[in-house]
Amino acid sequence: MASVPTEMAHGSRDGLTGLADLAHARAMIVRWQNDRPTKAAPSPIHAMMISLGRIDTVNVAFGESAGDGALVEVAQRIKHFAADELESSDWLAARVSGGAFLLLARQECSRERWQWLAEALADAIAMPIANPEEGGASLRLWPRIALMRVTEGDPPDRILDRLSEVQARMREGHGRRIDWSTGEVARLGRSYRELEADLLAAIDKDEIEILFQPQYALADDRVIGAEALARWHHPTVGRIGASSLFHIAERADHVAQLSRHIAQRALEHAVHWPRHLRLSLNITPADLAAESFATEFARLAERTGFPLDRITLEIIEQVLLADLDRVGHVLDQLKVFDIRLALDDFGAGFCNFRYLKVLPIDCIKLDRSMIDGVLEDERDLAVFRAILAMARALDLAVVVEGVENDAQRELVAAEGCEYYQGFLRSEPVVPQEFLSLVVS
User: Which residue in 85, 115, 167, 358 has the fewest CB atoms around it within 10 Å?
Assistant: First the structure.
C-alpha cells in the first residue's frame, strides 16, 4: 500500500463494509475544513460519490447474502484503489447508503486528474466479482460517479446534496458514468488510447518505477524481504499506481508485457540483496493464462541470477476466477522450481477457502481490512483468530498487511503471526533506500 487512510479508530464505521459511515464522513469534512494549512488558503478537498447500478437486481437474482458480499468487495476495491493512487494524501472512504459510497481526499489535485481517477476507479469496480455459490456465475456492477471540488463554504450536507443531484441527473440521462456537480465534464489531458501508447513507450524507455515494500519478522523486526510494486509518473496525468497501470495495460492487451517488465526490473535490483532476503512479485491472470509461464519465469530469474527458492509469487482471488483447474496446473509447475506461492489480499472479498484446499499455497497475506477493527471489535478479533487457526492447521505462513501502529503490531505478534508489512516501519521505497534499510 502506498498511503494511509485517515485514522478511523475514533470514528464510527459501517457495520457491513467496515468503511467509515455517513456521520464519520461529515465529521471528517468539517475537521479538514477547520484544519487548513494557512488561514488564507482553504484546505483542498475533493469528493466523489460512487453509486452502484444493478445492486437491487443482484439481491433479487442471487439473494441478499450475495448482494452484501458484492458491497463488501466494492468497498475493498475502493480502499485498495485509494491506498494505491492517493499517495501521501489524507483520504477517507465511506458508505453513505445501500449502494452508495463516498471517497474524500485532501490533496492538491487538478480537475482533470480527479476525473481520470474516477474513470480508473469505475473500471476497477466494474471488474467481475466472484459469486460465493459453488459454480455460480460471477457478478458485475456498473458504477456512476459524481465529482466535485469542495469549496471553503460548503458544509457536509450541501456537499452530499450536490453529489446526490449529480447522481440523479446521470440516472435520468442514461449517458455519462462520470459527471461533475457543475455539469461540465473536464477534458482529460490524455485519452485512454493515448495513455495506452504512452505506456508502451514508458516500458520501452524504462520509465516504470519499481518500489519495494519491506516485510519484517514479528519476532525481532528484522527485514526478511520485500514486495515489488510499480508506479508510473505520467507527465500529464500525474502519478499512476499499480492497479490503474494494469487496467491501462489490459485495455492495450499488454498486461503480460508489463508484468514481465516489472518482474525483470525487480529481479535485477534484488540480485544485489543479501542472501537471506526474499522477493515477492505479483502475478496476473494474463501470466497464468500462458501454459509456458512457469518455465519462462524460471528462465527469466535464472538469467538475472536471482535464486528461484527466494522468490514468492503472489496471486489474488481475481486470478483464480477464470479456470481453477488450469491455474492449479501452472501453480504446480511453479512449485517444481521451488518458488513459494502466496494468496494475496486474503480476507477481502468472498474468501473462498476451497482455494487453500486445492492449490499449492505456502502463505496467505491478510488484507489490511482484517486488522482495521481488531483492537476495538471483539467480532473482528474472533474472525482474525479463526483465520490464523485455519492457517496453522494447513501449515501456511501468515503475512499481515497494513500494520500502521504499535498496538496493531503487538496484537498480531501476540496472536502468533510471523511476518508483517506496513507504514509502521516503512512505506514503499526506492531500491537504494530499501538496501539502506537492510544494512542499517
Answer: 358
Cα dihedral sign for 420, 418, 312, 373? negative
Smallest Cα–Cα separation from 282: which of 436, 413, 401, 417? 401
- Decide the pairing of beta strands 45-53 and 142-150: antiparallel
Identity of residue 426 = S
pTM of the model: 0.79
- What torsion, rounded to 10 degrees, do the Cα atoms 321, 327, 328, 332 define? -150
pLDDT digits (tens, 9 = 90+) for 290-338: 889 999 999 999 999 999 999 999 998 666 655 678 888 999 999 999 9
- φ/ψ (deg, to 5) at 181: -65, -20
> How many helices and strands (H and E) does the chain possess?
16, 14
- Residues 312 and 280: their CA atoms lie apart, in Å, by 5
Whole-number Å distance between alpha carbons of 359 and 355: 6
What are the cell numbers at 27? 465529521
Q: Tell me how far apart the alpha carbons of residues 31 and 220 are, in angstroms, rounded to a whole number.
A: 38
- Residue type present at position 44: P
Tell me the C-alpha distance between 252 and 131, whole Å. Answer: 28
